[in-house]
Amino acid sequence: MTNNIADFKDNCSTFDQDKAEFKKYKKRFEDEVNDKYATNSFEKFFSESSFIKPSNSRNPPKFSSVDKTHNLNLKNNVAHDKAILILMCLAMAYVFFVNYKDIINLTVENGVLAGFAFMLIFISVLTYRAYFMQHKIKISITKDGIEYHGNKLNWNNIVDFGILKANSTSVSEHKIIVGTITKGIIEIDLTALNISPEEFINIMRLNTKNVLQQNI
After folding, report:
1. Residue 56: exposure state from Cβ atoms within 10 A (0-12, 13-18, ≥19)
2. In 10 A of CB 158, how many CB atoms?
């Protein structure tokens, strides 16, 4: 019978906890975070990443209502590819104008031709990746919860959350740390996806607002 109840919690999007039990799970999450991650200045100095609880941003949120977050699919971010593509096009244009006379007179050096060929191939690959490649959906947001890497997390299974950020500016790894009722701590990797950790936290706040408020 105990296992059936646990399965019910995992799969039923309308399951509710009483306030006392909810606070117990929230306290468990805080203790596990303190044990597992760097949470203060001293620990952050010796750690590659640290856990933070983001405050409400003063900037207007990207998603103003909970309905706008549903049916949202997150994929690999192609902004980096587009930026490199622009730089490569500018570099190719520069090389072309510098060697314009030689190109017109067909006296261009073999090294320049090889450089042109390389840039054309590279630009073609970037164009395909940025505009034509069908990137796999990594995370989906639904009215019931978060679907990520073949797993599902219901909104009412969430007790608290925060961001695990790399302490070095040279590392762009970002993870969302989620405290749950039935699964303990869950890490959702947002690295290289087309959303920022702050935007993802905003989505979670909107969707868990009613559940968390009624249990405070």
Report:
1. exposed
2. 22
Is the CB of residue 115 less than 8 Å from the CB of residue 102?
no
Q: Rounded CA gap, 177 and 39, in Å? A: 13
Which residues 6+ apart lie within 8 Å of 185 measured at CB? 29, 32, 33, 36, 177, 178, 179
pLDDT (tens digit per residue) in 151-207: 999 999 999 999 998 766 555 678 999 999 998 999 999 988 888 899 999 999 999
pLDDT digit string (tens) for 111-142? 888 888 899 999 999 999 888 888 889 999 99
- Asked if residues 152 and 143 have their Cβ atoms less than 8 Å apart, the reply is no
pTM of the model: 0.72
Q: How many CB atoms lie within 10 A of CB 134?
A: 6
Annotate 99-112 with b (16+ C-beta within 10 A) or e (fewer).
beeebeeeebeeee
CA dist 88 and 11 (Å) reads: 49
Give the Cα separation of 76 and 85 in Å (integer).
16
- How far is the C-alpha of 160 from the C-alpha of 177, rounded, in Å? 9
Token pair, residue 120, equals: 């054309």
Rounded distance between C-alpha atoms, residue 146 and residue 204, angstroms: 9
